[in-house]
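Anyone able to model this chain together with fe (ii) ion?
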Amino acid sequence: MLVRIQPQDVEIGMFVRAFEGSWFDHPFWRSNFRIETAEQLERIRNSGIEALMIDAERGAVPPPERHAGERVEMPRRTSLRSRARPLATVLKSRSRTTFAASDSGDRAAPRPRRGYAGECRRAAQVIDRTRGAVTNMFEAARLGRAVEVKKMVRLASAIGASIERDAKALINLVRLKEKDEYTYLHSVAVCALMINFARHLELDAQQVEDLGVAGLLHDVGKVAVSDEILNKPGGLSKGEMRSVRGHPAAGHRLLESSPGTPTLALELCLRHHEKIDGSGYPGGLKGEELSLAARMGAICDVYDAVTSNRPYKRAWTPCEALTEMRKWEGHFDPVLLDRFADSLGIYASGTLVRLSTGELAIVVGSAGAAGEDIVVRAFFDCGALAEIEPVDRAIAPSAEHPRIIGRDSPTFWRFADWDVLRHRILAANVAPAL
Ligand SMILES: [Fe+2]
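re: yes, here you go
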């Protein structure tokens, strides 16, 4: 049974089925999830939505006086869906990942999780199989030949299947590129990140596939730029810069002449270097002029670039990358950047998060050979409503417990001066995480 309630009546433990009102005011890119953190609660209460539907059979319900006469027996999916933008018609497909993200969905029926190590082995085979095909695609493009799009669809499908089994396995593996394999592995990485991101946003299955293909093809125009320029450390001359800035249009021209290229792949290829403030290229588009695909692509492209070793820069860990990317004002859609972080279960340093242990913690950084673990400093017991002796925990990608449930809100917990408290906790002398 669905119950229609006002945003101010929302509580932790309720199961959201749909938001009403303008899609632009929606506080989340998805519906159908349990409210688990104060940060989610605050986002809903502060949004501009008129009301929302909660599922009384899958979560908590407000007292009857708050929703008298507002119960409905059947989901109103059709009417709600019709209000969404075309690319965000999110209710058709229930494709899900196993991530513990801040607005992760229905925990009442979790999918069985396969071993992370086992999926790493399978993901490595998928990456090996893509190596030849993507390299050949770039070579053919270099000779001016059309892209065999059907092959790319098959590759995207194999990558999507690995993401479905355990997203972090392939995404963590593909981040560890050697310098000479950057070009093709960057395509595979952006494909994987786009698929994972699209699934997190609950885009429909066709859009997920098309965005995966778009990730594989987005940089094909780089065949028109010399390797010397692409790998040059330091600044570029005006002419070299012009050459680099021409690769989106060059790739777009090639893909236009390649039969079967998805529209989203054409869009991503042309627009992945645009910025939200209009300072990107080639069109200088800004804000709402940029499609969801373009905004997603800009994030995935940069994230993979900065987390990969390049001739001129060491790789950032995921935590460092997100921390820095959040500082680049005007570059990315900030709301979408947070959703991207949720899709990967990564957090910027200093973020307040809630743990499955019932503790609040502050993200400290990364650990592990490839920076795949997230180190948090637990400092507050939510049950006892009291500070505890700070302790660092390194949380592995596959950890079920303790795990990070999601971002939380300092305001909700009424920390008098969050910046001062955070500084004090982070300055504390704490033994290194095991
Ligand atoms: Fe590019």
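Residues 219, 247, 272-273, 301 surround fe (ii) ion (CB under 6 Å).
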